[in-house]
Design goal:
By secondary structure, this protein is α+β, with helices and mostly antiparallel strands. One of its GO terms (molecular function) is biotin--[biotin carboxyl-carrier protein] ligase activity.
Protein backbone atom coordinates (compact mmCIF):
# COMPACT_ATOMS: atom_id res chain seq x y z
CA UNK A 1 0.00 0.00 0.00
CA UNK A 2 2.81 2.40 0.86
CA UNK A 3 4.70 1.79 -2.37
CA UNK A 4 1.46 2.03 -4.33
CA UNK A 5 1.11 5.60 -3.10
CA UNK A 6 4.76 6.54 -3.52
CA UNK A 7 5.57 5.04 -6.90
CA UNK A 8 3.98 7.85 -8.94
CA UNK A 9 5.55 10.57 -6.81
CA UNK A 10 9.19 9.66 -7.45
CA UNK A 11 11.32 9.99 -10.61
CA UNK A 12 11.07 6.90 -12.84
CA UNK A 13 14.79 6.24 -12.59
CA UNK A 14 14.62 5.97 -8.79
CA UNK A 15 14.32 2.44 -7.43
CA UNK A 16 11.81 1.70 -4.69
CA UNK A 17 11.53 -1.37 -2.46
CA UNK A 18 9.71 -2.12 0.79
CA UNK A 19 11.00 -4.90 3.04
CA UNK A 20 8.98 -6.43 5.87
CA UNK A 21 10.38 -8.41 8.81
CA UNK A 22 6.98 -10.02 9.35
CA UNK A 23 3.71 -9.80 7.47
CA UNK A 24 0.12 -9.92 8.71
CA UNK A 25 -1.83 -8.84 5.61
CA UNK A 26 0.19 -10.14 2.68
CA UNK A 27 -1.77 -10.41 -0.57
CA UNK A 28 -2.07 -13.62 -2.56
CA UNK A 29 -4.04 -14.74 -5.58
CA UNK A 30 -7.80 -14.47 -5.44
CA UNK A 31 -7.84 -12.22 -2.38
CA UNK A 32 -5.97 -14.70 -0.18
CA UNK A 33 -4.17 -13.19 2.83
CA UNK A 34 -0.75 -14.48 3.87
CA UNK A 35 0.66 -14.46 7.38
CA UNK A 36 4.46 -14.52 7.37
CA UNK A 37 6.51 -14.72 10.57
CA UNK A 38 10.05 -13.55 11.21
CA UNK A 39 12.50 -15.62 9.17
CA UNK A 40 10.93 -15.05 5.76
CA UNK A 41 12.29 -12.86 2.97
CA UNK A 42 9.42 -10.45 2.29
CA UNK A 43 9.47 -7.48 -0.04
CA UNK A 44 7.61 -5.44 -2.63
CA UNK A 45 9.62 -3.95 -5.48
CA UNK A 46 8.59 -1.19 -7.90
CA UNK A 47 10.04 -1.20 -11.41
CA UNK A 48 9.11 0.49 -14.68
CA UNK A 49 9.06 -1.23 -18.07
CA UNK A 50 8.55 0.59 -21.39
CA UNK A 51 5.47 -0.66 -23.24
CA UNK A 52 7.34 -0.76 -26.55
CA UNK A 53 10.08 -3.15 -25.40
CA UNK A 54 10.53 -6.91 -25.49
CA UNK A 55 9.31 -7.30 -21.92
CA UNK A 56 6.64 -4.62 -22.25
CA UNK A 57 5.06 -6.65 -25.05
CA UNK A 58 5.19 -9.82 -22.92
CA UNK A 59 4.45 -8.44 -19.47
CA UNK A 60 3.19 -11.78 -17.98
CA UNK A 61 6.80 -12.96 -18.18
CA UNK A 62 7.67 -10.71 -15.22
CA UNK A 63 6.45 -13.27 -12.67
CA UNK A 64 8.60 -15.98 -14.28
CA UNK A 65 11.69 -13.76 -14.19
CA UNK A 66 11.11 -13.01 -10.50
CA UNK A 67 10.61 -16.70 -9.62
CA UNK A 68 13.81 -17.53 -11.48
CA UNK A 69 15.64 -14.68 -9.71
CA UNK A 70 14.64 -16.07 -6.29
CA UNK A 71 15.95 -19.54 -7.17
CA UNK A 72 19.15 -18.15 -8.68
CA UNK A 73 19.70 -15.93 -5.62
CA UNK A 74 20.60 -19.18 -3.83
CA UNK A 75 21.79 -21.50 -6.60
CA UNK A 76 24.19 -18.97 -8.17
CA UNK A 77 26.26 -18.81 -4.95
CA UNK A 78 29.42 -20.91 -5.33
CA UNK A 79 28.87 -24.18 -3.46
CA UNK A 80 25.08 -23.78 -3.32
CA UNK A 81 24.36 -24.81 -6.92
CA UNK A 82 22.83 -28.17 -5.92
CA UNK A 83 20.44 -26.84 -3.25
CA UNK A 84 17.19 -28.22 -4.69
CA UNK A 85 15.24 -24.99 -5.02
CA UNK A 86 12.98 -24.81 -8.10
CA UNK A 87 10.31 -22.79 -9.90
CA UNK A 88 6.74 -23.95 -10.36
CA UNK A 89 4.69 -22.23 -13.06
CA UNK A 90 3.32 -19.64 -12.84
CA UNK A 91 4.54 -18.04 -9.63
CA UNK A 92 5.73 -20.47 -6.94
CA UNK A 93 9.10 -21.35 -5.41
CA UNK A 94 9.44 -25.04 -4.50
CA UNK A 95 11.71 -27.51 -2.74
CA UNK A 96 12.13 -30.09 -5.52
CA UNK A 97 8.54 -30.80 -6.60
CA UNK A 98 7.48 -31.54 -3.03
CA UNK A 99 6.83 -28.38 -0.98
CA UNK A 100 6.13 -24.73 -1.59
CA UNK A 101 8.68 -22.35 -0.09
CA UNK A 102 7.46 -19.06 -1.49
CA UNK A 103 5.60 -17.18 -4.16
CA UNK A 104 5.41 -14.12 -6.38
CA UNK A 105 2.53 -11.74 -7.06
CA UNK A 106 2.77 -9.07 -9.76
CA UNK A 107 0.46 -6.08 -10.33
CA UNK A 108 0.91 -3.78 -13.30
CA UNK A 109 -0.48 -0.35 -14.20
CA UNK A 110 -0.01 1.13 -17.68
CA UNK A 111 0.37 4.91 -17.73
CA UNK A 112 0.85 6.32 -21.23
CA UNK A 113 3.71 4.15 -22.58
CA UNK A 114 5.18 2.92 -19.28
CA UNK A 115 4.24 -0.09 -17.17
CA UNK A 116 4.53 0.52 -13.44
CA UNK A 117 5.07 -2.93 -11.94
CA UNK A 118 4.66 -3.84 -8.27
CA UNK A 119 6.37 -7.15 -7.54
CA UNK A 120 5.62 -8.84 -4.24
CA UNK A 121 7.76 -11.83 -3.39
CA UNK A 122 8.17 -13.86 -0.23
CA UNK A 123 10.02 -17.06 0.57
CA UNK A 124 10.83 -19.04 3.69
CA UNK A 125 14.49 -18.69 4.64
CA UNK A 126 14.68 -19.76 8.28
CA UNK A 127 11.39 -21.24 9.57
CA UNK A 128 11.39 -25.03 9.89
CA UNK A 129 7.64 -25.06 10.56
CA UNK A 130 5.06 -25.66 9.29
CA UNK A 131 6.84 -27.04 6.20
CA UNK A 132 10.50 -26.48 5.33
CA UNK A 133 12.85 -23.58 4.67
CA UNK A 134 15.94 -22.81 2.63
CA UNK A 135 18.29 -23.20 5.60
CA UNK A 136 16.78 -26.65 6.28
CA UNK A 137 17.70 -27.59 2.72
CA UNK A 138 21.23 -26.35 3.31
CA UNK A 139 21.50 -28.36 6.54
CA UNK A 140 20.18 -31.46 4.75
CA UNK A 141 22.69 -30.96 1.92
CA UNK A 142 25.58 -30.55 4.38
CA UNK A 143 24.68 -33.83 6.12
CA UNK A 144 24.36 -35.73 2.86
CA UNK A 145 27.44 -34.30 1.13
CA UNK A 146 29.73 -33.64 4.08
CA UNK A 147 29.94 -29.95 3.24
CA UNK A 148 29.88 -26.94 5.57
CA UNK A 149 27.76 -24.43 3.71
CA UNK A 150 26.66 -21.54 5.90
CA UNK A 151 23.05 -20.66 6.59
CA UNK A 152 21.70 -17.73 4.56
CA UNK A 153 19.85 -14.62 5.74
CA UNK A 154 16.69 -13.03 4.41
CA UNK A 155 18.29 -9.65 3.76
CA UNK A 156 21.13 -11.24 1.78
CA UNK A 157 18.70 -13.19 -0.40
CA UNK A 158 16.43 -10.19 -1.02
CA UNK A 159 19.46 -8.21 -2.20
CA UNK A 160 20.64 -11.07 -4.39
CA UNK A 161 17.14 -11.59 -5.84
CA UNK A 162 16.84 -7.95 -6.87
CA UNK A 163 20.34 -7.99 -8.38
CA UNK A 164 19.66 -11.18 -10.36
CA UNK A 165 16.27 -9.83 -11.50
CA UNK A 166 17.92 -6.71 -12.89
CA UNK A 167 20.27 -8.89 -14.96
CA UNK A 168 17.42 -11.13 -16.18
CA UNK A 169 15.38 -8.11 -17.29
CA UNK A 170 18.37 -6.75 -19.22
CA UNK A 171 18.84 -10.13 -20.95
CA UNK A 172 15.12 -10.37 -21.77
CA UNK A 173 15.04 -6.85 -23.20
CA UNK A 174 18.00 -7.68 -25.41
CA UNK A 175 17.19 -11.26 -26.48
CA UNK A 176 13.53 -11.87 -25.64
CA UNK A 177 12.20 -15.11 -24.08
CA UNK A 178 14.93 -17.28 -25.60
CA UNK A 179 17.51 -15.38 -23.57
CA UNK A 180 16.10 -16.60 -20.25
CA UNK A 181 14.13 -19.78 -20.97
CA UNK A 182 17.13 -22.17 -20.85
CA UNK A 183 17.82 -21.05 -17.26
CA UNK A 184 14.12 -21.19 -16.39
CA UNK A 185 13.75 -24.75 -17.67
CA UNK A 186 16.90 -25.78 -15.82
CA UNK A 187 15.13 -25.10 -12.53
CA UNK A 188 11.47 -25.76 -13.21
CA UNK A 189 9.56 -28.79 -11.88
CA UNK A 190 7.29 -29.60 -14.83
CA UNK A 191 9.22 -31.37 -17.58
CA UNK A 192 7.16 -34.32 -18.81
CA UNK A 193 4.47 -33.88 -16.13
CA UNK A 194 0.80 -34.60 -16.90
CA UNK A 195 -2.16 -32.27 -16.37
CA UNK A 196 -5.89 -32.43 -17.00
CA UNK A 197 -7.61 -30.04 -19.38
CA UNK A 198 -10.99 -28.41 -18.79
CA UNK A 199 -11.81 -30.31 -15.56
CA UNK A 200 -10.57 -33.10 -13.29
CA UNK A 201 -11.97 -35.77 -15.64
CA UNK A 202 -10.78 -33.97 -18.77
CA UNK A 203 -8.26 -35.20 -21.32
CA UNK A 204 -4.65 -35.71 -20.24
CA UNK A 205 -1.95 -33.49 -21.70
CA UNK A 206 1.82 -33.31 -21.18
CA UNK A 207 3.59 -30.09 -20.22
CA UNK A 208 6.23 -29.13 -22.79
CA UNK A 209 7.18 -25.53 -21.94
CA UNK A 210 5.93 -21.94 -21.92
CA UNK A 211 5.14 -19.82 -24.95
CA UNK A 212 6.44 -16.38 -25.92
CA UNK A 213 3.90 -14.70 -23.61
CA UNK A 214 4.56 -16.83 -20.54
CA UNK A 215 1.55 -19.16 -20.80
CA UNK A 216 1.94 -22.89 -20.33
CA UNK A 217 2.28 -25.09 -23.41
CA UNK A 218 0.88 -28.62 -23.32
CA UNK A 219 0.71 -31.46 -25.81
CA UNK A 220 -2.54 -33.40 -26.05
CA UNK A 221 -2.25 -36.60 -28.07
CA UNK A 222 -3.51 -36.09 -31.58
CA UNK A 223 -3.93 -32.33 -31.17
CA UNK A 224 -0.40 -30.93 -31.11
CA UNK A 225 0.89 -28.21 -28.77
CA UNK A 226 -1.51 -25.62 -27.32
CA UNK A 227 -1.16 -22.77 -24.83
CA UNK A 228 -3.33 -23.02 -21.72
CA UNK A 229 -4.36 -20.86 -18.77
CA UNK A 230 -5.22 -21.78 -15.16
CA UNK A 231 -8.94 -22.23 -14.58
CA UNK A 232 -8.82 -19.52 -11.91
CA UNK A 233 -10.58 -21.55 -9.23
CA UNK A 234 -8.36 -24.36 -8.01
CA UNK A 235 -5.92 -23.88 -5.15
CA UNK A 236 -3.30 -25.74 -7.19
CA UNK A 237 -2.91 -23.67 -10.35
CA UNK A 238 -2.12 -26.82 -12.38
CA UNK A 239 -5.02 -28.97 -11.19
CA UNK A 240 -7.32 -27.80 -14.00
CA UNK A 241 -6.24 -25.93 -17.11
CA UNK A 242 -8.32 -24.40 -19.88
CA UNK A 243 -7.57 -23.89 -23.55
CA UNK A 244 -8.52 -20.29 -24.45
CA UNK A 245 -10.97 -19.98 -27.35
Amino acid sequence: SLIGRLMFELPEEMGLIAIAVRQTQGKGRGGNVWLSPVGCALSTLHITIPLHSNLGQRIPFIQHLVSLAVVESVRSIPGYEEIDLRVKWPNDIYYSDLMKLGGVLVNSTLIETTFHILIGFGFNVDNSNPTICINDLITKFNKEQGTKLKALTADCLIARTVTVLERLIEIFQEKGPNGVLPSYYKYWVHSGKQVRLHNEEGPIAWIVGIDDYGFLQVHEEGKGVESVHPDGNSFDMLRNLIVPK
